[in-house]
Amino acid sequence: MRIALFQPEIAGNVGAVMRLGACFGVAVDLIEPMGFAWDDKRVRRTAMDYIDHVEVVRHAGFDAFRATIGPARLVLMTTKAQHSLYDFAFDENDVLLFGMEGGGVPAEVAAAADDAIKIPLRPQVRSFNLATSAAIALGEALRQTKGLPA
């Protein structure tokens, strides 16, 4: 299982997702361009020393990223999806794709995903923070596939 961030805009969110990946043993793919200058100090502030315990792969764009995942299923996490992640059957090789904090993913990226699911929310609110969404989705996916650390 992997987490992929499409053109993330906030260094702190990337750091938090990297820490999440380190804790669960899940690699993180960063699909550029990012909305901030990559600076180990900025990202390390959130990821702390966990940054040394996670595999991070940066990709020049979506096509370059897509070419690296082979037959793995690309699962888009989006508030626009109709189906809940709690009704979805995850596979241990899934790649969980999260869009930009301010606008998700473009239509062509959404169309390239194999599935799209959402985290159910109360109707009065829009969405979770990116790192919170990643933690909820990854936790459920690893629980289902028995991939949680012992």
Total number of helical segments?
5
Categorize the overall geometry: globular
Beta-strand content bin: 15-25%
Order of helices and strands: EHEHEHEEEHEH
| Radius of gyration over all CA atoms, rounded | 14 Å
How does the major sheet shape up?
7 strands, parallel
Strand order of the largest sheet: 3-2-1-6-4-7-5
Quaternary state reads single chain
The residue ranges in which pLDDT falls below 50 over 5 or more consecutive positions are none
Number of strands: 7
Structural class: alpha/beta
Could you list some keywords that capture this structure?
globular; 150 residues; alpha/beta; seven-stranded parallel sheet
Task: Write up this protein.
The protein has 150 residues and is an alpha/beta fold. It contains 5 helices and 7 strands. A 7-stranded parallel sheet has the order 3-2-1-6-4-7-5. Helix 2 links the parallel strand 2 and strand 3. Helix 1 packs across helix 2 and helix 1 packs parallel to helix 5.
Explain the layout of strands and helices:
Blueprint: E1 2-6, H1 11-24, E2 27-31, H2 40-47, E3 56-59, H3 62-66, E4 74-77, E5 83-84, E6 95-98, H4 107-112, E7 115-118, H5 130-144
Parallel strand pairs: 1-2, 1-6, 2-3, 4-6, 4-7, 5-7
Helix pairs in contact: 1-2, 1-5
